[in-house]
Amino acid sequence: MRAQFVLSEIGVGLRRNLTMTFAVIVSVALSLALFGGALLMREQVSTMKDYWYDKVNVSIFLCNKSDGATSAKCAKGAVTAQQKEQIEADLKKMDIVETVHHETADEAYKHYKEQYGDTAIASVVTPDQMQESFRVKLKDPEKYKVVATAFAGRDGVESVQDQRNILQNLFDLMNGMNIAALGIMGLMLVIALMLIVNTVRVSAFSRRRETGIMRLVGATNFYIQMPFIMEAAFAGLLGGAVACVMLLVGRYFLIDHGIALADKMQLVNFIGWDAVFAKLPLVLAIGLLMPALAAFIALRKYLKV
């Protein structure tokens, strides 16, 4: 097979269907950008879970003097020194517990003022209204229920809270966005495949005379089909390249510059450039192979002379 002939046929096909080729490039680029973005979003959620779940604690909030009127669990009054000692001793005996920190009401009040000191409600809160608590770090955060079962009903304990629940809403939101991106990607992918099939059909129809002559002189099906397949693959590869640029630009402006989420959300451990670069070969490979496969399947039906 002469490479010069194949390349010339590819050029002819692209020029004849320039508008449709451009539409294929755009649709492939958008669908693959959404695909790459969904992969990066999933990795971001996984990274944040690994980072935060290692830092969050189980909090055992103890009854104070004011809880008796508002919580049935504290009807017997504020926690006693003996109850606190027993709770702490029992926590330290548990194999799943890594560390135990007792936060006094004064410490809780100090942290509250640091976080909400400028708000109106913070000005009327007093230290005696704050709850003492035990901050428990587990060796395996998934075993929160063991602690909750052991201490939730004890005298002097107002509630047992898993701080992972505070983060779970954020993770659920990000997972929802990820699913939405995948759904849009699927729609764009269907549109791209339809455009590819239609482009190949039009191209094959416009060159049916040439392909008929080639078949009469003994050209094989593969030789006849190769220019059409490579046209689709080239357009898909361009779309994949555009998608890669979109992912790089998105990472640059969203996290490092422009919106600069890395500066505004310093507590979030964002994925690095290595994660983005790792996804680019996959995006390019799909951009190359998907249109080529679609064109090959379409040619079996439309390239009959």
Report on this model:
With 305 residues, the chain is α+β, with helices and mostly antiparallel strands. Helix content is 67%, strand content 8%. The chain has ten helices and four strands. The protein has helices spanning 3-16, 18-53, 81-93, 105-116, 144-151, 164-206, 208-216, 221-256, 261-264, 273-302, and strands at residues 58-62, 97-103, 133-138, 157-162. Strands 2-3-1-4 form a four-stranded antiparallel sheet. Helix 1 packs across helix 8 and helix 2 (18-53) crosses helix 8. The two termini are 21 Å apart. The model has no long low-confidence stretch (mean pLDDT 77).
List the helices and strands and how they pair.
Layout: H1 3-16, H2 18-53, E1 58-62, H3 81-93, E2 97-103, H4 105-116, E3 133-138, H5 144-151, E4 157-162, H6 164-206, H7 208-216, H8 221-256, H9 261-264, H10 273-302
Antiparallel strand pairs: 1-3, 1-4, 2-3
Helix pairs in contact: 1-8, 2-6, 2-8, 2-10, 6-10, 8-10
Oligomer: single chain
- The total count of strands amounts to 4
Q: Give the overall shape.
A: rod-shaped
Estimate the helix proportion, in percent.
55-70%
